[in-house]
Amino acid sequence: MIPGYKLANTKERVFLPMTHVSAAGIDIFTNVWLVDKTQDFETYSNGLRIDNRYAVPNEPRVPYPVYQRAAIDGQPEWRSQAAGIVFHTTESDQAAFEAGQIRNLKRIGEDVLRFVKRNHCYHFLIDRFGQVFRVVQESDIANHSGSSVWADDRVIYVNLNASFFGIAFETQTQKGQDLASATAAQVHAARVLTQMLRNKYRIQAANCVTHAQVSVNPSNMLVGYHTDWAGNFPFLELGLNDNYTAPPAAIVAFGFDYDPTFVHATGARIWQGLSLAEDQIRSQAAAQGLPVQQYRSILQKKYKEIIATLKASAAKENSHAT
Ligand SMILES: [Zn+2]
């Protein structure tokens, strides 16, 4: 059965795509527990070690709305626990990764950490030696994915700062190289960190995604405003499914589009997801007997309504706070 929703101001009945081809299979969680904790460090049973010396509080994670894929016009459901992880690159300056550069590598790494701390950018930063630094506390929100959309098989998440953790790799997409890369130490660190967070918060593998997959630009309704980890993210090495093959939720749920710049910035793996999303949009529009563009604009209107509601409630909260 294809579920549908009714637009508030029209008599049109619009059906949302439910054939979300998630790359996720059965979720397997690794049992990870805290072994030791001092003021500065935490160690875990899977080898994860977190350096807390740069940890900083930010705004607490207040309940955030999620929208049912099956009934997007209904009341949102409110949640307060993190539901996913967005992986980033810092896009900061890089020195050659070799012993002769130790002094530079350390200095650059510390500069990045200080910047990230000052701006509450991410929850965790993994430096080039694979050291994991806690920045924003897990209980708080970080400013890592402002305008963004993702969905799992049941619900749609909008603006993931409140609902997803942000983990950044200290790396830079080199000119001419197209895609970012991580050191072996970073890949290992990200794997054990992801295991710990997924186990602690029961995060689905389908909700572990890269910034390029979720970032949107509401002013031109294009996906891929940020393109970090647009390709080459080591999903499998982290014990995750290759989520590049999942259709970007912004396209299938809210009718976002993409332009050649985004396609150029991505690796071939993400194209599978894009073409699946196009197929879904076309077949859903056909099922409605609507031209694709008209169907898209109905979905886009829904997104704009949601964003307007979110903005209004944020403004209300601010006026209460002052
Ligand atoms: Zn990013």
**What is the architecture of the domain at 30-242 at the second tier of CATH?**
3-Layer(aba) Sandwich
Please mark out the parts with pLDDT under 50 across 5 or more consecutive residues, or reply none.
1-13, 17-22
SSE class: alpha/beta
Which ligands, by name, code or SMILES, are bound?
zinc ion
- Rounded radius of gyration (Å): 20 Å
* H-E order: EEEEEEEEHEEEEEHEHEEHHHH
- Fraction in beta strands: 15-25%
Give the fraction of residues assigned to helices: 25-40%
Helix segment tally: 7
Q: Give the N-terminus to C-terminus distance in angstroms.
A: 48 Å
Identify the quaternary structure here: single chain
What shape does the CA trace take? Answer: globular
CATH superfamily of the domain at 30-242: Peptidoglycan recognition protein-like
- Give the rounded overall mean pLDDT: 89
Text of the CATH class of the domain at 30-242: Alpha Beta
Give a count of the beta strands, DSSP E runs of length 2 or more.
16
CATH topology of the domain at 30-242, by name, is Lysozyme-like
Largest sheet: 8 strands, mixed
Strand order of the largest sheet: 3-4-5-10-9-13-8-14
Give the secondary structure arrangement, pairings included:
Elements (H helix, E strand, L loop, with lengths): L3 E3 L6 E3 L18 E4 L3 E4 L4 E3 L12 E5 L8 E3 L4 E6 L12 H17 L5 E3 L5 E3 L14 E3 L3 E4 L5 E6 L14 H18 L6 E3 H4 L1 E2 L4 E2 L25 H6 L5 H6 L2 H21 L3 H30 L1
Parallel strand pairs: 5-10, 8-13, 8-14, 9-13
Antiparallel strand pairs: 1-2, 3-4, 4-5, 6-7, 6-12, 9-10, 11-12, 15-16
